[in-house]
Amino acid sequence: MAFTVNIPGIIRLAAFNTPDEVLAANDASMVGRSLSGRGGLVNRSVAAKLAVFRTPDGDVWPAFRDRLDPLRAAHQAALEAALSNVGPLLGRIAPEIAELGGYVRDGAARRSTGVIVQQAVGRLFFADYAASEQSYAAARTLQTWLSAAPPRAFWIRRSGALQASLDRITDLSRGDMACAHATALAMDNIVRTIELMRALARDGDNLTKIGPQDALARTLRAPARVVREARDGGCAGPVRLRARSLVLLAVESARRQRPDPGFAFFASAWNRCPAHSIVPALLADVWQAARTDTEAAHEQRGDLQTDQIRSE
Questions:
Q1: CA angle in degrees (0–180, nearest 5) for 280-255-211
Q2: pLDDT tens-digit series, residues 14-24
Q3: How far is CA 239 from CA 100, 233, 253, in A?
Q4: What is the three-class DSSP state of 289?
Q5: What is the rounded average pLDDT of the residues 64-81?
Q6: Spatial distance between the Cα atoms of 13 and 43, rounded to a whole number of angstroms
Q7: From residue 251, how far is each of 31, 56, 220, 301 by CA, in Å?
Q8: pLDDT tens digits for 266-298?
């Protein structure tokens, strides 16, 4: 159920947890991505965290632009069109898919899962994108920055780690802020899904019994929450919002109540993720890659047993 919190000078918040509530709040005309920092100390702190995601010349990353921003709409449409070329793009990252499939199957890889995922995502934008432990550490720093309590956030900024991480991700993304967002923030949902696939594959003979789409339905994860702001007062579904309230959308909690892969990507909304088609396809291919090697190993063992019987 949705709820609101209003402590003058401290916080003004509305939280939405069910699928219908999340979709209604996301679609409400007065709710947007831009955070003013007004409404209380907490509101100001959250706005300050998101304010760092800008280009070197001060332009906001596309994923943080508002609904009515014409640049947002243009960037989103162009990227969605580019990422809709699913087959060739998955072919481009076939080595990374095979590597992730091996990890799902065996639990071992020559480099960390995060690095493999970051490189796969980066190569959807640039064929020669090369991730490293350092670039993945930069992504983890930015992810931590978003969720860190004030003392830790202060240290991340004061130590220089925040700016260094932003610089590394921006440089690798060659100034493409959609690529920066994907390889720094959005990729974390893929990493979590791959880890859940590994856990699923470890349980009995799930790799042989469960198909890619079923595995995807069981393991796909959405962002835990996304933050918006109500610019003006008004109603979002059954909830009346006060002006300048933080709007907290519990996307993952809502997705569990409506296990539709599209829900995780807001696939039917104005802010749909441009990767709403290719990410599920990528993850399904990872599971299939793990299954294919497992089935081949089973067939090879069967052939060996047959040869042994014949020799006897």
A1: 40
A2: 999 999 999 99
A3: 43, 11, 18
A4: helix
A5: 90
A6: 8
A7: 16, 30, 12, 44
A8: 999 999 999 999 999 999 999 999 999 765 555
DSSP strand pairing (11-16 vs 3-7): antiparallel
Q: What mean pLDDT, rounded, does the chain reach?
A: 91
Domain that holds residue 135: 3-311
Band the pLDDT of 57: cuts 50, 70, 90: confident
Residues in the chain: 312
Place of tokens 């003979």: 205
Q: At what angle do helices 150-158 and 161-172 cross, to 10 degrees?
A: 70
Q: What is the CA radius of gyration of the chain?
A: 22
In which band, very low, low, confident or very high, does the pLDDT at 60 lie, cut at 50, 70 and 90?
A: confident
Confidence band of 310 (pLDDT split at 50, 70, 90): low
Return d(Cα 48, Cα 156) in angstroms, integer. Answer: 14
Spatial CA neighbour of 92 closest among 63, 126, 52, 117: 126
Global pTM?
0.90
> Which alpha helices (H) appear in the chain, and where do they start and end?
19-27, 41-50, 70-83, 86-92, 94-106, 113-123, 133-147, 150-158, 161-172, 177-181, 187-202, 206-209, 212-219, 251-257, 278-311
Q: What pLDDT digit, counting tens, does each position of 104-113 carry?
A: 999 988 999 9
The total number of structural domains in the chain stands at 1
Looking up tokens 């199957």 gives: 105
3-state secondary structure 85-102: CHHHHHHHCHHHHHHHHH
Q: In this structure, what CATH number is given to the domain that contains residue 149?
A: 1.10.630.10
Question: Distance between CA atoms of 162 and 158, rounded to whole angstroms?
Answer: 8
- What pLDDT, on the 0 to 100 scale, is given for residue 61? 87
CB atoms within 10 A of CB 102: 18
Q: Are 146 and 165 in contact (CB under 8 A)?
A: no
The DSSP code for 262 is G
